[in-house]
Design goal:
Helix content: 55-70%
Oligomer: single chain
Order of helices and strands: HHHHH
Shape: globular
Number of helices: 5
Length: about 100
């Protein structure tokens, strides 16, 4: 379970999940965290990392859904969190239609 203060999460949700109300967005904290990891500015990313810690960031990244990360952010976070070595970043998640 992801633990982050509701106030901090709502503040990030207002900025990064603009298509939902903050209350709706915080119902899925991992989505808010992923969005900040993907498109957050430097100060918000640093604040998020301090708030939740690397283990939570790893959990969000390893359980990411297709479309949550762009290629650049995907590679950055794998390197930053020690989940990949140079040149060995896993492929982005893809949608599968059955």
């Amino acid at each position: 379970m992801i633990r982050i203060s509701q106030e901090a999460l709502q503040s990030l949700a207002r900025k990064y999940i603009w298509w939902k109300s903050p209350d709706e967005a915080v119902a899925t904290p991992e989505r808010v965290i992923a969005q900040v990891m993907d498109i957050g500015d430097y100060s918000d990313v640093q604040a998020l990392a301090k708030l939740v810690g690397d283990e939570v960031l790893r959990e969000v990244l390893t359980n990411a859904q297709a479309g949550q990360f762009n290629e650049r952010s995907w590679a950055y976070w794998h390197y930053r969190l020690g989940l990949a070595s140079v040149g060995h970043v896993p492929a982005l998640p893809v949608r599968r239609f059955v």
